[in-house]
Amino acid sequence: MWHAPWIPWLDWDHFRVAFNPMIVSNSTLVSSLLNEDREWDFQQTATWMVPSVASSLNLIPMIPNNNDDKLIWKDATSGEFSPRVAYKSIIKGRRAEKDPIWVRNQAYHDHVQPSFFITFNQIKSLVAELNSALTTPQDTSLGQSTLNVMQGLLQEDFVVFVDAACKDLRSAAGIIVTKSDSEFVEAFSVQLQATLPLEAEAWALLHTVHWCLIQGWHNVTFAVDCQPLVQGIKSRKTLDWRVAGVFARILDSLDRIPSATVSWIPRSGNEKAHKLAKRSFNSYRFGFFNAEELAPLVAI
What we know:
Layout: H1 12-16, H2 42-48, H3 51-54, H4 83-91, H5 100-109, H6 116-135, H7 144-153, E1 158-167, E2 170-179, E3 184-192, H8 197-215, E4 220-224, H9 227-235, H10 244-254, E5 261-264, H11 271-283, E6 287-289, H12 291-294
Parallel strand pairs: 1-4, 4-5
Antiparallel strand pairs: 1-2, 2-3, 3-6
């Protein structure tokens, strides 16, 4: 407990002062702070930790207990060690931002002599391209490939569209439930504690799966526009070790709905859930929405 910084949001210095100064350091394990249900024992945590930290331990995601322990190489996105990522770890200090003097010298050696007129013309060109992109009418109709994907989803009793919005260390999920004949069932949004886009997408899906379990829905297709998440679920292997905890919980929950499927859908086919997540993120309004409330935002 004392010799490894196991609280994610604390660096080493803050970690050391998180303990009750009246407690003597020893070889106690973190597992001793958990009760028989693998939940934090608040009496124990209040004894060992300062109050501000003890009350926040529930923010640490718990991996289901049927998962094997795994050693993570933190410098690899996948968490897996290889000579290549080890070499990159060794030299990453040399790959820091270049010194301004070196940048200036490099421009000299590369015979780069930017002038005011060259820079001004480049800016004009970029502005013209941006203006063209903004004024060109966009084709909002679904392409044939998207239609084929949509038709493939409409095989189960329920189709649940899921998406997340993530920005500035905040995130929100938009979930829209329909029947296989596209009949609207319900829609809701939730606020998430996620700081990475992939993490937000994973938590959004986990919330959705849990909701379907509560409702007793089994023949469900979860439509997600995050390909890495869908690929990871199909291979039962997370693509980023930083979301390993929530990913393991997704697999554990999906195993309780054997007839459910998770399918990738293009963003154009998931626009409703995307706009709902974005709207809730911007307005700080979360909860259930009926079809009339969603009508100004999306056509259902």
